[in-house]
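Two quick folds needed for the group meeting slides. Do the first one here.
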Amino acid sequence: MIVRVGTSLPCPPEEAWAILLAWERQADWMLDADRVEVVSARREGVGVRLAVRTRILGLPFTEAMEVTGWDPPRRLVLRHGGVVAGEGTWTLTPEAGGTRFDWIEDVRLRVPAIGELAARLYAPVLRWLMRRAARGLRGAVIASGPRRR
């Protein structure tokens, strides 16, 4: 299943990138995540590993994630390694007045026998969660204010 959302952020890509990479602060704007923790020695680049305490349909679990694509400040790819399999891609593109943030999740649910059906039923929920998170990210960018140059 592929789900796409996007929003405009009122800041340059470098500032948006810095907010995205404040790993432990992601739960502030990604409201289905309760906690994000870096579990690797490195905090930047391919190979960064995360433990994300999250919920699917209200059920809590910890998802292992790993950075598999890294092109600052343009593109970040995270591989899901738990109940959700696949990858999410965040892309930052300069636009008039700021940055376009696009988020694509290409995922499937590892649910025996009913995985495809479960994914189809979950797609609208995931889209809603991603839209809410994109709005939360925009709010976090606005709340951070302009950087001093």
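Then this one, please, same format:
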Amino acid sequence: MVDRVTATPDTITLIKKLESLHGPLMFHQSGGCCDGSAPMCYPRTDFKLGAQDIFLGVIGGQPFYIGKDQFEYWQHTHLVIDVVPGRGSGFSVEAPEGVRFLTRSRIYTDEENDALDAAGPPPNALERPPV
């Protein structure tokens, strides 16, 4: 199975800290401008998901979704969620920590693309809810 999204060790450490402070979390990457195109982390009950949100996988025990339009652009890339110093969005729970989440990516190999094609499209949020 090919992962569509993974996280760096530093990101996993931060996720565990944020979960201890806020409870179960979820990630969403939309197609908005500025911070809206960065991965955002929310308490799981604070963000309403819909059919236009695509489930990519789980990082640090928390579900990760991406807006459908963004998925169209990123579907041929493996996303690696990292954490870097700096201020991101005030709505994402890592903001008070003085860090922000950042998406890095790499193009899938031909073999990975073949495996993803064989698996079919990922489910949307209504087909795979976060809880």
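Slide caption for protein two: The CA atoms of residues 3 and 58 lie 9 Å apart.
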